[in-house]
Amino acid sequence: MSDWKAEEAKARDRVIPLLTLAITGLALFSAGLIIPFVKRDFYEVISGGVVQWRARPFPLVMTGALLVLGIGCLLGASILGRGGERASPSVRRLLYGANTLVAGLFLVGILAFLNVLSNLRLGRFDVFNQTFDYTQASLYTLAPSTRDFISNLREPVNLYYFHSPFSGSSQFARAETATLVENCRRIQPSLVTWQVLEIPSESGLRELEDLRKKYQFPEELGLLVVMGTNHEFIKSSDLVSQQRSGPPGDPSGGATLQYLGEGKLLNALVYLSENKTKASVYLTSGNGEMGKGDGADRSAAMGQVIQALEKDSYKVETLNLAGKFQAIPADADIIVMAGPKNDLSQQAVDALEKFLQGGSSGKKGKLLVLLGPERERTGGAIGFTPLPRLKGLLRKFKVDVADQVVVNGELPPHSTTIAVANPRMSSSLTKPMRRGGGLLPFEFPEARVVNPVTAGPADAAAPSPLSADSFLIAFPRYDPRPVSDLSQSFEALVRSAGWESGKNPAPPTDELTVGVSVSDGGSPRLVVLGNARGFSDDFIGRRGVSGNSIDLASTSVNWLRERSNLGAKPSDMVKTERKTYKLELDQRAAGFSRLRFLPPALAVLAIAGMGAGVWLIRRR
To answer: Same domain, yes or no, for 386 and 516?
Structure first.
């Protein structure tokens, strides 16, 4: 009995120290929770992310120290009261209460630690910082064009986003831009930096003024992109497209928010990487080529391809090769010849050859030729339009244009060829033409056979050290065969006995090439595609026809420009942007904003319930 009383006396003696430690710990922990919301500079640093944590670590360290000391005091109180809980009800209540509080705080601390850990860069151990995109439309995945460009960055890129917490569209753009930038930083963590400046906070306004004095950009919210000594500003209104349905001013109407930031950022980076100059692309005319789309004939226009090139920061001009043509403009970087129906003049051929070989300036030009099987009637027969001068020019640069069209025996219409990248060729040109282990298909109506000239005396006039490669072939699975006679019906030819027997025409012994690329010592010089109609607005705009032709033309031009496959985009991204969100509101939407408090409320309720359960069990 005396032992029990002695133990009870010891337990009573521990009540004051235990209570002091518990209150001190609770006060320190509460201070650590409250101080970021009371002191403005603490809040700006803690909510600013990793960039602010590294720049101003004191608020984060101070807050963390208060939280750790508070938990330590509570844990000390729990240890101090151990052994006296059986002798004193007061000690038992304090001990079990402290245990429950410490367990709950440890749970919160573990969750907070994992969230902080997911934002830290740990090099090869950077496991917690990975994101996984489970959305069907790949909303949080970079396009291959963006990924390839960021992978090839050589200069640091600093991004500053000016954000207003009072603007709904600005908050939306901030969240999506943060995701976009983080995806870029996972590819180049040391070259891409990111900072959010909240307007109108004092520090945000101060830094905004400093940046505005240095870079001279508009007084608007948006994204400032700095690469080396160059900079570009993207307005916040250009990052987001918002469209409302229903009558104007009606809050019950739906709204569609579309994030356009990835394309805007990529174009800005391309523009800055080329010293804020747009490469000049000249579209030839005067010999029946397709134009920009100014007329009503959509079959003779390639306006959609031109728009894609302009979005990739190219300046597209027209170059008339007819008449008294003398020279290529000095600012021309790439010339595109889309479907000439007539042969070039000798003056035009000489000027193009001089352009390709460098001439007096030494700047070697680049050429993209889209060449289909143009027809000409001679007497009662229909044959290929003779293009001796153009063929001779291409032959000098190791490309042989054959008077053959590809007919497939499997899919109607049999005059349309499914072209794919040559699986035996691996280069920066063919890389974007592969998707998920497969080959991206391109529809070529009446594809013409073009072949690389690899050896022999016929290519002796070709400038050395040119190398030609077959990068695009007719898909062998659909039984493609070369046909020289244009006067016959291809549909009837496929049903004929000669086709069935394999004698007329005979299947080719090798793949049929419909695309040739030419390099000069590893530098791209020339691309010839055996098709032109597949790039017309009429063909691309038809229902059921994919827009992959736009990708192919854009990728070819970017390869010639030695860019990082900027034309490479998933086929489902040609017509739509990366992210689209639809908000449907009605008269009952007044409580919609309360949903944001639901997840934290459930988390607190779960922790409290778990703590109460532990308390009750331990009291028994």
So the answer is: yes
Angle CA 61–66–67, to nearest 5: 100
178 with 257, same domain: the answer is yes
CATH number at residue 185: 3.40.30.10
Report the greatest alpha carbon distance in the chain: 130
Question: How many whole angstroms separate alpha carbon 83 and alpha carbon 80?
Answer: 8
Whole-angstrom Cα distance, residue 94 to residue 82?
10
Residue range 398-417, pLDDT digits in tens: 999 999 999 988 888 888 88
Do 336 and 250 share a structural domain?
no
Q: Is 608 helix (H, G, I), strand (E, B) or coil?
A: helix
- Which amino acid makes up residue 16? I
Tokens matching residue 424: 């035996």
**CA-to-CA separations, 156 to 188, 193, 223, in angstroms, rounded:** 9, 8, 16
pLDDT tens per residue across span 286-297 = 888 888 766 556
- Count of domains for the chain: 4
Q: In what order do the strands lie in the sheet with 399-408?
A: 448-452, 399-408, 480-483
The DSSP annotation for 432-492 comes to GGEETTEE--EEEETPEEEEE--SSGGGTTSPTTEEEEEEEEE-GGG-EEEE---SS-HHH
Note the pLDDT tens digit of each residue in 127-153. Answer: 555 566 655 555 667 777 788 788 888
Domain-embedded: residue 566: no
In three-state form (DSSP H/G/I as H, E/B as E, the rest C), the secondary structure along 409-428 is CCCCCCCEEEEEECCCCCCC
Q: Tell me which H or E stretch contains 537.
A: helix 537-540
Residues 440 and 365 in one domain: no
Packed helices 346-357 and 388-396: angle between N→C axes, nearest 10 degrees: 10
pLDDT class for 596, splitting at 50, 70, 90? low
pLDDT value, residue 402? 92
Give residue for tokens 């960055």.
Answer: 153
The secondary structure of the chain in percent helix, strand, coil, rounded to multiples of 5, reads 45, 20, 35
Measure the CA–CA gap between 101 and 24, rounded to whole angstroms: 13
Residue 616: pLDDT over 80: no
Q: Are residues 390 and 493 in the same domain?
A: yes
- Beta-sheet pairing, 240-244 with 523-529: unpaired
Distance of CA 121 to CAs 96, 130, 188, 290, 337, Å?
A: 39, 10, 12, 51, 49
Q: How far apart are CA 172 and CA 163, in angstroms?
A: 10
Q: Which of 201, 35, 60, 190 is nearest to 126 (CA)?
A: 190
Give the SS3 label for residue 95. helix
Looking at per-residue pLDDT, the higher value among 600 and 129 belongs to 600
- Cα distances from 206 to residues 202, 336, 371, in angstroms, run 6, 49, 58
Residue 287 structure tokens: 């010999």
User: Judging by beta carbons within 10 Å of its beta carbon (0-12, 13-18, 19+), is residue 542 exposed, middle or buried?
Assistant: exposed
Instruction: Give me the domain span that covers residue 346.
Output: 278-371+532-545
Local structure of residue 590 (DSSP, 8 states): G
440 Cβ contact partners less than 8 Å away, ≥ 6 residues apart: 420, 421, 432, 433, 434, 548, 551, 571
**387 contacts: CB under 8 Å, gap ≥ 6:** 340, 342, 343, 344, 374, 401
* pLDDT, tens digit, 9 for 90 and up, residues 12-36: 666 677 778 878 888 888 888 788 7
Average pLDDT of the chain, as a whole number: 77
Question: Is 134 among the domain residues?
Answer: no
With CA atoms as reference, report the closest residue to 173 among 86, 235, 95: 235
